[in-house]
Design a protein that fits this description.
Blueprint: E1 6-9, E2 15-18, E3 31-33, H1 36-60, H2 68-117, E4 122-124, E5 130-132, H3 135-152
Antiparallel strand pairs: 1-2, 1-3, 4-5
Helix pairs in contact: 1-2, 2-3
């Protein structure tokens, strides 16, 4: 299983998955899932924009506007809420990834046991023909299963 991926709806409404961000011009509303690092960057950009807007309002100093200090509690509350939402989203994503790793680990260990038991294993080749794994193929599959176990079964 690949790492965290981007998920978005393209112009035709089809859901797309990639390890790269969606094409430029894709509306934020169409981006369904982002990697955790991209979420942090988006939240930082939003916080920077809010900070810039607050400082711009403070420097204009129009007589009809409220002072910047009166807006600070509201901005602080928004910032705290955004931070809590981000933490909750990160925790949910980590739990999801942990569940996927545990599932991959269990499947790889089961496959490793099957390979070690010496049971005949058949698979379909590129031509659609059924072929039985020979000793070399069994060794390659065993190494692949070990690699998956090593990457997914660590605490």
């Amino acid at each position: 299983m690949a790492g965290v991926q981007w998920k978005w709806r393209d112009a035709n409404g089809a859901v797309q998955y990639s390890d790269r961000p969606p094409p430029a011009g894709t509306p934020d509303a169409n981006i369904l899932s982002r990697p955790a690092a991209a979420v942090r960057q988006a939240n930082k950009a939003a916080a920077d924009a809010a900070s810039a807007a607050a400082s711009a309002a403070a420097t204009t100093g129009n007589a009809g506007t409220t002072p910047a200090k009166a807006q600070d509690p509201e901005l602080e509350a928004r910032r705290r809420k955004a931070e809590q939402d981000k933490q909750a989203q990160n925790k949910a994503e980590e739990e999801k990834q942990a569940k996927l790793r545990a599932d991959n680990c269990a499947r790889a260990r089961s496959y490793q046991r099957t390979l070690a038991d010496g049971i005949r294993i058949a698979r379909t080749n590129d031509k659609g023909e059924r072929e039985i794994l020979d000793d070399k193929g069994r060794a390659e599959e065993s190494q692949r299963a070990k690699d998956i176990i090593q990457s997914n079964c660590t605490p």
